[in-house]
Structure formats: structure tokens, C-alpha cells
Sequence to fold (162 residues):
Amino acid sequence: AILQANDGELLFRGKTFGPVTAPLASTNSGIFIPSHDQALYAINRITGKDQWVYRTATKLTLPPTMLSRSVFLPVPNAGLVALDAADGKERWTTDLQSQAVHTDDGKVLLQYAGGLRWVDERTGRVIEDVQTMPIQSVVALPGNSLLVVSPGGRIHRLNPKR
Fold:
């Protein structure tokens, strides 16, 4: 359901055919909802109507990421899918179990358990791959800096080359 922020009025209600356990992603125009029914739903934020549905072969339990004009969907035990946010068409896939965390100048930074990988946003072609310590999460900061957090709690700040 989507509620009006100022008064709580119900704007619209929808339904998936399975539980939703992962956080959703949103933009000014769309909301992207991963479901255990093996589908990612793109909902128009204004009307509440389905824009498109992308189906997978497994339950979706990880959050999608919206960067630039793409939705990056981690699919458990399958990898990562890059979708066009406007129409849901598949741009590319990789079998690397990863999460998109940042975009810069037509490149997307993927985080995976043992490293960081820059790929071309349109094709998924690997540009650069850096093996690192185990990574729990990556947070993009202003100025293209990154905070990299290890499972043990070590935090590293990476600044771009100047």
C-alpha cells in the first residue's frame, strides 16, 4: 500500500503472489518490489499501476538497486541482472553474486564478497576487477569516495585518484 505522507490517506494498494522480505528500491517515478513469487514488480509511483514485471527462476530475497537508468537485481544463486528501468528489458546478466553500489561516467561498481568490479553500464563488460578483503557492504559518498566495510567491522575509505 502507498499512503499520503501528510495525512495517511490510502492512495493505492497492490498485491504480489508471495511474501516480500527484501527492501524495495524507488525513484521519483517508480517503485521496484522483489517478491518470493520470483518476480520483480515495477510500480508507477503516481498511479500505483504495474509498469512491468520481470520474472526469475528463484525467490527474490535481496534488494534491487536503482542507479542511473538501470535497476540492478541480485538473483540468489544466479548472479546479477541489469534491467532498463523504463521497460524492464534485460540489458545484461552476470553469474557473479554481487550488488551494484555506484555509477560513474557510464560505469557501474559492483560489490561482491571478495572484491570490487567496474563494468560497462550498457553491456556488463568487465572494465576492472580488484580483489580485496572480504566485504560486508560498500557505501558511496559524495565526491565518488567509498566506505568499504568488512564483516569484522574494519572500515576503509577509498578516494578517487585526483
